[in-house]
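User: Can you fold this complex?
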Amino acid sequence: MSAEEASPHDHSLAELAGAFLKIGLLGFGGVAVMARRVLVEERGWFDDEAYAQMLGLAQALPGANTVNLAVLIGDRAQGSPGALAALAALIAPPLALLIAILLVYDRIETLPLVRAALAGMASTGAGLVFGTGLRLAWGLRRRRTGLLFGLAAMVLVAGLHAPLAWTALFAGLASMLYAAWALRREARA
Amino acid sequence: MSRLVLLALLADFAILSLAAFGGAATIAPALREGVVLRRHWMSDAEFLQLYAVARAAPGPNIIIASVIGWKVAGLVGLLVATVAVLTPSSIVCLLLGRLTVRFEATAFVRALKLGLAPVAVGLILASGLAIAQAADPDKIAWAMTAAGAAWVVFARRNPLWILAAGGALAVAMRLLGRA
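Assistant: Here's the predicted assembly.
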């Protein structure tokens, strides 16, 4: 085991702030895409499987997913100060930018080209979010049967318009029960 | 009067914080109901515009709460709303997150993490589909969505490139349609 593997989550305050600053400021059309991009592909802090597990935890706890990721990853690295640094870096710069946009929004929103650009970015961005889900699903391929619970949750929410929170609760519980059963079976085998 | 407004912001958003499983989309209906119908802080059109801009702009969509605070009570409102919507959920997340680290090796936490991961992935896929359903009026738009998905799956390049290309393509089509 290399030294790096011995403490893989020991990022400094500056590293935490830098990563989440980038996720926040470049997270157009859904921070989920940039969060995976930065944490998995660029910084290599997680592989897709470990990242999906972290995301599962962030999803199951109250609060926005990426906000919770900042808290979980920041706390694991540097305790409460780490959580606070990651959270502040994630929230404050986009907030300042958003207010600046709102100050000029009435003047630019009606411009047809601005509308066209935003619509094009929204369509493409939807694909980025879906593709991020596909990459994470691939990361979980070792447990294919478990992925069926994710598929069910997707169909319930996107196809049948079931409420997200209830779907997360029931699909999550069912999936956990299955995982517990599968782990016991593996331990016996 | 303004102190009452700040108290109302604090109470409303702190409660919503604990209900915001997933993110802003989950609490958007409740937020709208509270801000527009119950508190009369803004019109429905104003709320929808704020929500749309917060979604299109970079950053977590939950900052819609901060912007509502700013509209209602200026800079102090912004700070109060931000703290209110982030603190309760983050404290719960911090404490429960520590428990999962401490009891990492137990069967319960292992099942928790293994079980929750695929559901989180399924919900990300669902949110991509939901955005596409709302944002894609025609086949060209769906093709752009497919291109975005393919980019993440097959290319290891920064997603901002394809996002910029999608925006540029839409602008070009608009210009050509006009010409």
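Strands of chain B lie at 21-22. The first helix of chain B runs from residue 2 to 19.
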